[in-house]
Amino acid sequence: MGKKAREIVGVDIKDLINDLNKAYCDEWLAYYAWWYMARMVDGKGYEDMSEFLDKISKDELEHATELAERIVELGGLPVNSLSIIEKSANAPYPGVMKNLHDYDEIIKIVTTAEAGAIEVYNKIANKTFGKDHDTYQLATHIMGEEIGHEEMFENLKEAK
Ligand SMILES: [Fe+2]
Ligand SMILES: [Fe+2]
Hints:
- By secondary structure, the protein is mostly helical.
- Helix 2 (13-40) packs antiparallel against helix 3 (46-73) and helix 3 (46-73) packs antiparallel against helix 6.
- It has six helices and no strands.
- The protein has a single domain (11-159), classed as Ferritin, core subunit, four-helix bundle (Ferritin), CATH 1.20.1260.10.
- The chain is elongated.
- One fe (ii) ion (FE2) binds at residues 30, 56, 59-60, 114, 117, 146, 149.
């Protein structure tokens, strides 16, 4: 990002990079938990659950990638260690189901984390609205997908 581009960002860039880095950490934790559960889930109809989890895990990895790109554009550096990722995230590691076929627990884990993610991106969007167009666009784009994730898993609860 050049001088002028940085000048037009109307928020404290250091503070914004910190917010984006925390969200970046959340994405890695969610990616890992969803990826793991997609491979470990079993029981009746597990293929569908596995497919849903795999789909959202890929989205979270994409979010991490998009956030890393924006952090670098702003002149920052994405968190570079897994132990720091866990410590710096907004929310603790979502964890995975204790029983591999406990769909209720999976749904609870996912919907709780997705609700947290929606809040995080809503905050970033509010902070950057009218001040940093690119980050605002990124935050609302990611938030839209987190809303989709929450809805997908809430619908699973109703479908049971
Ligand atoms: Fe995400
Ligand atoms: Fe998500």
